[in-house]
Design goal:
InterPro entries: Class_I_gatase-like (IPR029062), CobQ/CobB/MinD/ParA_Nub-bd_dom (IPR002586), CobQ_GATase1 (IPR033949), CobQ_N (IPR047045), CobQ_synth (IPR004459), GATase_3 (IPR011698), P-loop_NTPase (IPR027417)
Protein name: Cobyric acid synthase
Shape: globular
Radius of gyration: 25 Å
Strand content: 25-35%
Number of strands: 27
Domain CobQ/CobB/MinD/ParA nucleotide binding: 33-263
Structural class: alpha/beta
Function: Catalyzes amidations at positions B, D, E, and G on adenosylcobyrinic A,C-diamide. NH(2) groups are provided by glutamine, and one molecule of ATP is hydrogenolyzed for each amidation.
Keywords: Cobalamin biosynthesis, Glutamine amidotransferase
């Protein structure tokens, strides 16, 4: 079947829908697009800030990014998967995120292959070349129909580009930068990062590589991440405006401690591998190459008594109170990395020598803690694989076609063997699940030799002879999702020192997070801290702080004019 027919089948695009993309857009909401001179110049953060500012000013606003490449994803209310940045931007707008805000999500599974997610559902695993040659030529109806639905519903849609619009080798089949700006007739603001150096060369060089009609779409510059005296920069700003005829809309000073969820794992480079001084609890997160949803641990890092650090080598492990195996886009490959680095042995040795330390697995990390991982249908990475797990929990995971993407809420089971310190009779938990693996107790898989495709794996009904060190385990949570009956979720070793769960966002549950941390404090002979902050309130404060910062340094009147909006809108 042709890619175009496959896409139509996936998202139910009709010829009528495709023609609708070309009709008059005068009655639709306005559009404003931010593009960057490179990746990681701060486009996502500035879009988040502008979304918040416009909403504060009474404008019904939505974010949009036609194509996003990210391993940090977000689950919508209807159980679909989009880029995390667009989910966060929707939260800044005070609206529910939908797949229209990010119709195409690319999740890399290796250097040359990715899983393509279209409107929140896995579509295909494609090489970079096949994606470019077969998918992109037929993707325009997908991205434009999504954008037009948003424009029909909102007063303003703030579009975000990807990477740079001046990538000459990618421009012809672009669906996320200047081609998209042309289809949508969107004015463009170009963002440059002065912190990396050469910002004037980046801005002018990008313009020089654009076609005349593309260059005409650029209506302003934003210089981001500035540190220093603005007066020393001013001659350069004057030169830039004279050289290009395009106004500088503002210079944004570097804002530390943003507390806005990041999408790109490059931010993990800023985390030290050594524990922070003066923090009582040391938490280590294993940073494997395909780590996903690392924002699971943002609220832990925000706690006043916690140091969160990311490590890649056994020598960096130290003597932590908690070791966390996070999510992964390619669990079996990342498990191999963990072994190559000697982390499996280092973790085992440390857990055996420590009396209170805990080992935690989230999603892919949960799967690694089991006995066996099987991918007989090449679901995760496009290759048939199997692997022996770390053997801390008596579990077997089989990766199956399709993906479970749901929001989940529930509570800690009364008899769960977790080491918690709380006076509350019920501890609520919530989060979301994104996984292809189905995890069961190894004893449920079968006895003797079990065949999975071309693989034969030994299982036994003798619990003592399994590979797992954690044969005595109990479930953790009682949870429920929309259109689903209550079910047990997660597994914990009876001694409370090893547990795993599929719940991303678990540590955003305030009561659970603090009860768990205070349980660790108690095990160390420290007094509990009890409640410290609300994750939801902290997120709202962070949005407002960012919006105030950006509003104070940008010419918002000019930005309103560029977007075609009245300066004092009455919506």
């Amino acid at each position: 079947m042709r890619q175009e027919d496959l896409l139509r089948e996936q998202v139910d695009i009709t010829e009528k829908d495709a023609k609708r993309n070309c009709v008059d857009s005068s009655n639709r909401g306005a559009v404003l697009m931010l593009q960057g001179t490179a990746s990681d110049v701060g486009k996502s953060v500035i879009v988040t800030a502008l979304c918040r500012i416009f909403v504060q000013d009474g404008i019904r606003t939505a974010p949009y990014k036609s194509q996003n490449m990210a391993l940090n994803s977000y689950v919508t209310a209807d159980g679909r998967e989009i880029g995390r940045a667009q989910g966060v931007q929707a939260e800044a707008c005070g609206i529910e995120a939908t797949t229209d805000m990010n119709p195409v999500l690319i999740k890399p599974t290796g250097d040359m292959h990715s899983q393509i997610v279209v409107h929140g559902k896995p579509y295909q695993h494609l090489s970079a070349m096949k994606y470019r040659e077969e998918f992109l030529p037929v993707a325009q109806p997908i991205v434009m129909e999504a954008l037009n639905r948003l424009r029909d519903e909102y007063d303003l849609v703030v579009l975000e580009g990807a990477g740079s619009p001046a990538e000459i080798n990618l421009k012809q089949r672009d669906i996320v930068n200047m081609n998209l700006a042309g289809w949508a007739e969107a004015p463009v603001i170009l963002v440059g990062d002065i912190d990396r150096g050469g910002v004037f060369a980046f801005l002018v060089g990008t313009l020089e590589l654009l076609e005349p009609e593309e260059r005409a779409r650029v209506k302003g510059f934003i210089i981001n991440k500035f540190r220093g005296d603005l007066e020393l920069l001013r001659p350069g700003l004057d030169w830039l405006e004279q050289r290009t005829g395009i106004p500088v809309l503002g210079v944004l000073p570097f804002l530390p401690d943003l507390e806005i969820e990041a999408e790109d794992s490059v931010i993990l480079d800023s985390y030290a591998s050594m524990p922070k001084q003066g923090r009582d609890i040391d938490i280590v997160v294993i940073r494997y190459p395909r780590i996903s949803n690392f924002t699971d641990f943002d609220m832990l890092a925000a706690e006043p008594d916690v140091s969160v650090r990311y490590v890649q080598r056994a020598a960096e492990l130290g003597e932590p109170d908690v070791i966390i195996l996070p999510g992964s886009k390619d669990t079996i490959s990342d498990l191999a990395f963990l072994r190559e680095q000697g982390l499996d042995g280092a973790i085992e040795q440390y857990m055996e020598s420590s009396t209170h330390s805990q080992l935690v697995g989230i999603c892919g990390g949960y799967q690694m803690l089991g006995d066996v991982l099987l991918d007989p249908e090449a679901v995760e990475s496009g290759k048939v694989k199997q692997s022996r797990g770390l053997g801390w929990l008596p579990l077997t995971t089989t990766f199956l076609p399709g993906k479970k993407t749901i929001r989940t809420a529930g509570h800690v089971l009364p008899d769960a063997p977790l080491s918690l310190y709380t006076m509350e009779p019920v501890i609520p938990v919530g989060g979301y699940e994104i996984h292809s693996g189905e995890t069961v107790y190894s004893s449920q898989v079968g006895f003797g030799l079990v065949t999975y495709g071309s693989y034969v794996v030994a299982h036994t009904n003798d619990a003592a002879s399994t590979t797992s060190r954690g044969k005595d385990v109990a479930p953790l949570f009682l949870v429920q999702s929309v259109d689903e009956e209550e079910r047990m979720e997660g597994v914990c070793r009876i001694d409370g020192r090893v547990f795993g769960t599929y719940l991303h966002g678990l540590f955003n549950s305030d009561g659970y997070r603090r009860a768990w941390l205070d349980g660790i404090r108690q095990a160390k002979g420290l007094e509990p801290l009890a409640a410290t902050f609300s994750a939801a309130a902290r997120r709202e404060i962070a949005f407002d702080r960012l919006a105030d910062h950006v509003r104070g340094h940008l010419d918002m009147d000019q930005i309103y004019e560029i977007a075609g909006l009245p300066k004092n809108p009455q919506f």
